[in-house]
Amino acid sequence: MHKNESGNSCMFACDKINDYLLWIKKRIFCERILRLVAGYENFMDGLLDIVRSGTIDETMGEQVKTYVLDFVRNNPLAAFDRFADDTYVRDYIGRDARTGWEAIVMSWKKGNRTAIHSHPQFAGYTFADGEFLVEIFEPFEGGIRLVDELRINDVLGLYAIGEAGKFDNHIHRITCLSDTAHSLHVYSDDALKGKKLDGVKIFYN
Length: 205
Known about the structure:
The protein is α+β, with helices and mostly antiparallel strands. Helices cover 30% and strands 34% of the residues.
């Protein structure tokens, strides 16, 4: 009898632990959702209409680029004037839990720079105002090689399409060159799953 009661107590404790872990996961999820900036539901609905087919290709990429460019031209991002000296500031304006597609406004001060990093299959960048340097890399001999540098000082949309199910696509780094700036980024999955590559060897042509 004592053995049986001990076993039941152990099962009860394990259930409690599992319930607690589930609560923690739900809280983390809710806290992330609460960080969404309200008022951009229509933008996200329009984006999801474009990507609903699930086929990520050049046709979809051009449609997303045009859609986001039109949005930033008609909706200045001055409402996101939250800046920090040490890093750019991210504000989620939409994330679809079913498909993973998300949209993030990034606010920049001069000198703010991303890590060298990669992304999910689709990554779109729309530079709304300010000036930027975008460095693009590719894998090379156990490290990475700089293959292009783009200086951006106008409203401009870019996108990259990589392999599905991977988060090592489109290796790049973005630096803000102006006093302040804003950009709007669209990803086909959680951008934070991308790899950070600042520690790898860099080859320059």
